[in-house]
UniProtKB/TrEMBL annotation:
Keyword Lipid metabolism: no
Domain HTH lysR-type: 14-71
PROSITE patterns documented for this protein: HTH_LYSR
Pfam families: HTH_1, LysR_substrate
Key words of the record: DNA-binding, Transcription, Transcription regulation
InterPro entries in UniProt: LysR_HTH_N, LysR_subst-bd, WH-like_DNA-bd_sf, WH_DNA-bd_sf
Keyword Protein biosynthesis part of the UniProt annotation: no
Entry's transmembrane regions: none
Family: Belongs to the LysR transcriptional regulatory family.
Official protein name in the record: LysR family transcriptional regulator
GO molecular function: DNA binding; DNA-binding transcription factor activity
GO cellular component, one term: protein-DNA complex
Length: 298
């Protein structure tokens, strides 16, 4: 039995087996698939989830037609269950005679993995914890850490730090990417006025980078040539002469392209985030490795 305190209204023993079963159910939100994964019958799984709900005196899910949806309390318990499972895996691994450790999961965007984190991966793979990589957008990576689906996240977490312990990692400016023979290719820097009449490759409407671009270029006439997500895709469209694009200046450009510092954009800070108060040894180890690697690179 596991002694926990979910809220000021509850303090008691929570059945570990039921908690782990609920974590599987919460992932599937389907009793049939969850029972199959657990190798138990559906009635047995129903009983475990019902017992856990009774112990906590809160509803863990609701039924909307044929769909099962976690309640707010259910989401809290599911995050707690994932954290407990991860910590248990780590403790068991540390007690094992071979000293093998539990997996540590790192979540970040594809661009950050390719251009920022990739040099650290070989060092991380030689470390004491097996590494698992999860590719997702910044706000999704932050949510994955909050919900204990990942241990560490790297990204820009402006206004999205609730429940996270964030460490500044790298300050990033913007650059204009153009073909090497473009009229602006020889400039040492560019400002908004230099893009008058240009065709731009931009993220979809509502994307944070699109909002920033529209704000900086508010006094300039420009044409929306292509809407695209991802550095590689945007660069490919620049190569097809569909327009120019603005992106983070850490991106390594292929031959035939020039990156010119773009003035007027605010500097953004990439951060390394772990769950607030996390006791997970692997999360702390990977966070320190990433922060230390950036200091060495400087």
């Amino acid at each position: 039995m596991l002694l926990v305190s979910i809220s000021s209204g509850y303090s008691g023993c929570m059945n570990y087996d039921a908690l782990m079963a609920f974590a599987v159910f919460a992932r599937h939100r389907n009793f049939t698939r969850a029972a199959e994964e657990l190798f138990i019958s559906q009635p047995a799984l129903h009983q475990k989830v019902s017992k856990l709900s009774e112990e906590l005196d809160v509803p863990l899910y609701v039924r909307n037609g044929r769909e099962l949806t976690l309640t707010e309390e259910g989401r809290i318990v599911a995050a707690h269950a994932r954290e407990v499972g991860s910590l248990t895996e780590d403790v068991i691994a540390r007690l094992d005679a071979s000293k093998r450790r539990g997996t540590v999961a790192l979540a970040s965007g594809a661009g950050a993995f390719l251009h920022l984190i990739e040099p650290v991966i070989p060092r991380a793979r030689k470390g004491p914890f097996p590494l698992r990589l999860l590719t997702m957008r910044g706000h999704e990576a932050a949510e994955a850490v909050r919900q204990a689906r990942a241990h560490v996240a790297v990204g820009v977490f402006e206004g999205n730090r609730h429940g996270l312990e964030c460490h500044p990692w790298l300050d990033v400016d913007q650059m204009l990417v153009v073909p090497a023979d473009h009229r602006l290719a020889g400039h040492s820097e560019v400002v908004a006025a230099d893009l008058e009449g240009e065709s731009l490759i931009v993220p979809p409407e509502g994307h944070p980078n699109r909002v920033k671009t529209e704000r900086v270029l508010s006094g300039v006439t420009w044409h929306n040539a292509v809407e695209a997500l991802g550095y590689e895709l945007a660069i490919a469209f620049v190569g097809h002469r569909l327009g120019v694009t603005i992106m983070n200046d850490f991106v390594n450009l292929p031959d035939g392209f020039v990156g010119i510092p773009m003035l007027g954009f605010p500097t953004v800070t990439f951060e390394v985030a772990v769950r607030e108060g996390t006791p997970h040894e692997g999360a702390r180890w990977l966070c320190d490795l990433l922060l230390g690697a950036n200091q060495l690179d400087d």
